[in-house]
Amino acid sequence: MCVFCRAVAGQYSFDEGNQSANDLCNLALIFSGLELCLYPMAPQPQDSMPRSWKKAPLRSRQIEGREWWLWGFAVAVTLALTAGIVFLTFFGDHTETNPTYWTYLREWVRGLAAFVLLFDVYTMYQHLQLQRVRQRLAERDELFQLITENAADMIAVVDSSGRRLYNSPAYQKVLGYSTEELQVGSSIDQIHSSDRERVLQAAQKARTTGEGQSLEYRMRHKDGSWRTLESTASPIRSVDGELEKLVIVNRDITERKRAEEMLAHSGLHDALTDLPNRVLFADRVQHALMRARRHSDYKFAVLFIDVDEFKVVNDSLGHGAGDELLVQIARRLTVGVRDTDTVARSVVVDPQPTEDGLARLGGDEFALLLEDVLNPIGAIRAAQRIQEKLTVPFDVGRQPVVITASIGIAYSSNSYDGAEDLLRDAELAMYRAKRTGKARCEVFDSTMHSSAVRRLKLETDLRRGLERGELIVYYQPIISLRDGRIAGFEALSRWQSPEGMVSPADFIPVADETGLILPMNRALMLESCQQLRLWQSQFGCSPPLTISMNITPKQFAQPELAKEIGATLVRTGVQPNTINLEITETIAMGDADCALSVLSDLKALGVLLSIDDFGTGYSSLSRLPRFPIDILKIDRVFIANMTVDHDSHEIVRLIIMLAHSLGLKIVAEGTETEDQVTELKRLGCQLAQGYLYSPPVDARAASALLLRSYEKVTS
Ligand code: C2E
Ligand code: MG
Ligand code: MG
């Protein structure tokens, strides 16, 4: 354009037209400047990616619009100016003698020049503005480029058909593929087949709705392993709103996923055996319950497996060995379960991988979910098979360990609301199996449930009763058959609950199992020792009065038992040889070494020791002489029948003979008739206790009995 202007200007290099020629030359210069200014504003070819994708299209569209407007306007002005000059030069009335014409032309050209000058200034201003915007965009592009090239996240740009346009270098770092390799392969092929459909759907949705969503999927690493990616797609639209590209930001969350999975695993699995824990097991049982509700012919069973006497392993071989044994049990159960599976299902409806149904509930307790068990017999057979497998000796630290297990079975029924109910019932059945001799299995029935509920209530009430001081001591006299006077008392607990008197036969076993027996008997011992001191000082009889107290299995297993009793004796100032501790035959005849050691500790206190309910348990008579005992109490069953039943009489006679030969005293429990007393005296029994003399009574009534007894003796 400037060249053209200069050419036009060159034609006016005559004298009169000098001024006009100068003006035109100026005009040409202005246009040169204008053109120079406009040149950088002409639309540039698009840079290669990356651009500042999200906002750049709008800004560059604005810039381009402005540039085209300026450019078009400049061309229009130039054309108009050129046309005017051409017209004036070639077609106008421009005789050299017409000065008005030249004056007019000069004015016109000056006006035009001023206008162009103004326009030029405006253009310069616009240009500067555009330059600034463009510079900012370039800087932002650079920044974005820097970010994408160095980002740990993988950034990809794909066109609307899914073709890759750009992949950031992070792809190489995370997935091992170079940009060239990525261009060759299809991104879809690298996605895990199970995730592919989901990704395609999400991509399709992003394309049609323009809304990118976040999703997780697995992509193959170049080395063949799978990486988990978290991906977000954002659309880029064209000027007319059409989706042009998708920007996809992929984050490698493989490690996070792994950590999450590990956490989830440890939350649902037992750390020692890696078997599912109670939470996961309950979840599986819940699913089985739901399935049973949908399909009436689907039945299942929950087996609660508890290792018998596991404590002995821990105590004798140490906790490390105990853990090792548990791991081995878990392993054997897992293997055993596979075989059991077929045993449990007489007819397989829908086989399930039952190894999944095995769990460790804690300690030495395992549980098994047996699916598709047609009836409880199938479950019993499965349980017996497991028990058989467990009886094969384990090798723990090169030492053979033999164990047995008690198994409780709860069979699915419509009455179950939740998994915990089934587990509870299976556990109750397991306790029944333990109580009835261990190494057995029991199927839960509803009576177990009601008795368990009763028992639970009793336990709660007893705990409360103990706190409120509802437990009191009753005393039953023990009579010397030689002179008929009271030789001592047996202290027996009574529970005056708000609902009435509760029999010790009901609450003593509960107290023993829950451990409540310990505080209970501590209180009983303290009170009865104080009472004994009082009676001894009041009646001063010789030999001194004694008090007998019962020791339960739980107490007997207390390592501190002897120390505690010793402390009570010191505290109350009672003579140890006036205290008689009664241990049942079953406790005494349990673990011989252990029993002997506890009995020796107790004997070292100087107290008397009795074997209670003698004749009912399984006594090893050969052991009796080794035990430091003083008295045998013949069980009341034999006394009750001795006058009517020859065998009972013989047993009583033999026990008395045995006691005499061992130098032990005999107490006949449950003496109710004079005939019994006569016969007992004839056989040489020294002491008797029973309703004939008095039932257990409270301290005041016992004092009255004592008073009468001593009055009788002295009178
Ligand atoms: P045990 O030690 O054999 O106590 C004797 C039981 O025989 C008492 O029952 C007593 O009331 C009952 N008895 C006494 N004479 C007769 C009789 O002529 N005929 C009949 N049929 N029964 C008679 P009780 O008081 O119900 O106690 C039952 C068992 O509970 C006791 O048996 C004892 O083993 C245990 N026990 C009671 N109180 C305590 C306690 O405070 N601590 C502990 N550890 N055990 C206790
Ligand atoms: Mg007793
Ligand atoms: Mg007894």
Sequence of strands across the biggest β-sheet:
13-14-16-17-18-19-20-21
Structural class determined from secondary elements: alpha/beta
Unique ligands? ligand C2E, magnesium ion
Q: Number of helix segments?
A: 24
Can you summarize the main beta sheet? 8 strands, mixed, barrel
Q: Indicate the percent of residues in helices.
A: 40-55%
Radius of gyration over all CA atoms, rounded: 52 Å
Question: The CATH topology of the largest domain is what?
Answer: TIM Barrel
Strand fraction equals 15-25%
Observed structural traits:
715 residues; alpha/beta; Alpha-Beta Plaits; 4 domains; 8-stranded mixed β-barrel; 5-stranded antiparallel sheet; 24 helices; 18% strand; elongated; disordered N terminus; binds ligand C2E; binds magnesium ion
Structure description:
This protein is α/β, with parallel strands linked by helices and 715 residues long. It has 4 domains: 3-145, no CATH class; 154-261, PAS domain (Beta-Lactamase, 2-Layer Sandwich); 269-444, 2-Layer Sandwich (Alpha-Beta Plaits); 469-714, TIM Barrel, CATH 3.20.20. 54% of the residues lie in helices and 18% in strands. The protein contains 24 helices and 21 strands. It has an 8-stranded mixed beta barrel with strand order 13-14-16-17-18-19-20-21, surrounded by 5 helices. Helix 2 (18-38) runs parallel beside helix 4. The longest helix is centred in the N-terminal third of the chain and has 52 residues, at 99-150. Residues 1-56 and 340-354 have low confidence and may be disordered. It binds ligand C2E and magnesium ion (2 copies). Ligand C2E is lined by residues 476, 492-493, 503-505, 508, 521, 524, 550, 552, 582, 612-613, 636, 669-670, 672, 689-691, 696.
